[in-house]
Structures are given as structure tokens and as C-alpha cells.
Fold this protein.
Amino acid sequence: SLAPPQRKQLPRRRKTVDHVRPHVDALIAKGLTGREIWEKIFDDHDTGISYSSIRTYVSEQREQGDHHAQP
């Protein structure tokens, strides 16, 4: 029997990071750690973004070498 066609892979969005992305990107460019970035975003932007969301975004940006990403 034939296998069903493979499903289309949709890109995942980080909705929780979208509204502070420019700020996070600027802090990445300054060389701050993921924890420092999360603390600054948490304090300065009154947001409840989890540390793991920020850590994942920062890690992916650094792997790509994209320190000045724009939304």
C-alpha cells in the first residue's frame, strides 16, 4: 500500500518574543547573557515572558550569527 503524502511543515512562531524582539536583539548585540537579557526585559518592559522563551530565542540567534535581526 502507498504511504500517505508527507505533511507540510509550517514555521513555528515565537509569539511571546515578537513584541520585544528588537530589544532582545539589541541586548544580544551588546553581549549580554540569556539570563541578563531576560532580567532586563522582565524589569524594563513589564512582561511575563518566560526565561526559557528568551533563552531559546537568544540561543537560536547566536547559532545563526544573526545579532541584528529585524522582525
